[in-house]
Amino acid sequence: MEAQNHFDVIVIGGGAAGLTAGIYLSRAKMKTLILNEGAIGGQMVLTHEIANYPGVESISGYELARIMKAQAQKFGCIIKSNLKITKLDLKDEIKKVTVNNKDVYTSYALIIATGGRSRTIGAIGENEFKGKGISYCATCDGDFFQDKEIIVVGGGNSALEEAVSLTKYASKITIVHQFDHFQAFQHYVDEAKAHPKINFIMESKIIEFIGDEKLEKVKIQNQRTGEISEMKIDGVFIFIGYIPNTEKLEGIVELNDWKEIIVDKNMATNLPGVFAAGDSIAKRFRQVTTAVADGTIAALAAAEYVNNIKKELITAEV
């Protein structure tokens, strides 16, 4: 293995979990490399304003990501982004990551922080209004819609549960669901139906988001009749599922039925020396703060793992 391409720890993913791991590892004098397929920041950069990060009253997701990146680099972490990871060899003691089918990086330990993405509905204008009226997180953005009228898209447990939780902010909530029945547990359905702020548009879907600087209205199509109507709205929350970015990890590390990485309390996977953190792991709550916590634990555990390997190597040489 080439010395310049060998690291104590490689972190795959440059979102909140990956950057936090980079900060902790580099500060602990671990030679650390972060490899990120897209732009640094992950899901954070899609959030126009983060108002629930402890110690910071309000900050944009982009700015928080920028600060985290600068912190990691200050401690010596090397960060490479906008690349393609083409091969992973993680079963042996030395982990190998191939980038762009040519560059090979090796390490004693590896942290997977590939994150995930909310399932989108694919309507016209959805990408343009993400963070500008469209949200996929009630906990993150509910407070921005105080006394506003909003739509919740979905018919599963999370959609109905989050719709009820959003009633403490919004003045009116309309649940738009493509079927004539819900997929949620009955008590969630009953709770939503009993709430005076919640209305329903069934057998329908949003086909277009419309606005200028921010979302102003939507086009809704009835699935049975094909009829299209417009509705003025202040915001739309979409809860139709979550997809972890683990497609390249199938058959490599243990995943659950939802393709999330299974980890223990130390963020360790089933492979020795391979850890995982953030939105790609099996967990209930996905917030910037929980990703930061995961990244911290994974980094400390990985550093301990690497130090033990180095001690063994020194002992073997003696």
TrEMBL record:
This chain belongs to the protein called Thioredoxin reductase
Family membership, please give it. Answer: Belongs to the class-II pyridine nucleotide-disulfide oxidoreductase family.
CC cofactor:
FAD
Keywords, sorted A to Z: Disulfide bond, FAD, Flavoprotein, Membrane, NADP, Oxidoreductase, Redox-active center, Transmembrane, Transmembrane helix
GO terms under cellular component: cytoplasm
Give the cofactor note text.
Answer: Binds 1 FAD per subunit.
Say yes or no: keyword Disulfide bond present.
yes
